[in-house]
Amino acid sequence: MFKKIATLKTAADFKEYLNSLKISLPFDEKIQSGTGSPLAQPRKINGRTAGNSIAVLPMEGFDGTSEGNPTAASFRRWQRFGMSGAKLIWNEATAINPEGRGNPHQLMMLDSTVGELARLREATVKTHKERFGNTDDLVIGIQLTYTGRVAHPHDLNHGEPKIVYHHPLLDERMGLKPDYPVLTDAEISHIADDFIKASVLSQKAGFDFVDIKHCHGFIGHELLSAVDRPGRYGGSLENRTRFLQEIVAGIRAKAPGLDIAIRFSATDFVPFRYDKEGKGEPVPFTGKYRYAFGGDGTGLGTDLTEPVAFMDILAKLGIKLISVSVGAGYNVHLLRPSAIPACDVYQNPEDPLIGVARLINVSAEMKRLRPNFLYVGCGYSYLQQWLPNVAQGVVSQGKADFAGIGRIVLCYPEIAADILSGKPINQRLLCRTCSDCVTAYRNGLLAGCYALDDYYKKSTYGDQLRLLKSKK
Ligand SMILES: Cc1cc2nc3c(=O)[nH]c(=O)nc-3n(C[C@H](O)[C@H](O)[C@H](O)COP(=O)(O)O)c2cc1C
Asked: With a threshold of 0.85, does the pTM exceed it?
């Protein structure tokens, strides 16, 4: 059994538990407030300034219309990001075309939706202004995505995979036969064109930057491990990053001034599956596992040689703003450490704190090896009451430039403002990482906090979630 974070009452308890797990995390005993606080430090991003060192991470709400427009729920969600107090808001995965959607409710950046997405951004800015007065130092970006392998554009129960290579383990899991079509070079080039179009539209909508998503198993990430793919987009790292290089060239030509960011998974493991007790275990693989970008060939370890070479390519492309994540949808404990995994996901194969330390330390190591970027860290929500201490520790020790916060913002939208103003953390609003937000979206419901936010908890979606959980 893993110790619950809530039971680690003192800093000494917390540190002792970290020691027992043989992990370490930066930790500041005293949380500072006011302009001298490490988390209050402004950061320059592409000629703009983010007024502090806290970022809201991309989090989809699975609440768009079938046309890809935002709904009232999307507006509420983004406005809450605006009231968080974070000065960098990195908005969610937004599909660049209909076939690239991860789910039928994903937002899309199209000619037909750009007006509503511009309104969504404006509403976020307006809320921030009402709450904090100044928006000159608010930087807002949007993550652009093409799902690829796990695309579900029309029906959550019916995948429409677009793959860039035949993956020995994932193909088997998904029932894809050896003759299942692989995206051609021409099709990949067409998808790159759609990223460029969506970037032009994002600039029109007022976003300061676009993130060309390369994490969590989606197309950019899958291309990074396309070592066996022949042709222009596979094999060498140069070829595996051609997709990104073409997108960046197109954005520079067609949307000058728009900043480009990258969120990528800097390491990855083999897919995990249920063992006999329902716990996660790695799918067995014999030989060298070559399909994990940033992996060491064992399927369960890290080698940052290629991610560092990738950063050198990013430097040449003029990309500065980075979010380093880990893993993919097939090994979720790596990317989203949780006390209770979603109800149709394997149980934790490791203490979630080990996952938190991996996320924070891999990003810190990338920053140590390639310091000339702005790093947005992630994986902090599981830390709960110790989040401010670790976040401040990471930033004050220069191990990241921004503390990026995800799930905790869903239930405690003003957490950044509270930390920065020296208010004690509101323990009642802490995310306990119960994964209801994830269970909900995996079952076609809106993603939000069903434990603490009445908007979801008391809605018909809340009733549906409770019903489906009672049946599992
Ligand atoms: C409901 C939900 C939606 C998410 N959507 C995205 C997304 O659109 N893009 C992305 O890169 N990560 C997404 N993530 C992952 C988060 O950005 C973040 O990396 C992860 O939750 C770990 O941070 P945390 O511990 O602060 O939550 C999502 C996570 C959740 C819980």
From this structure: yes
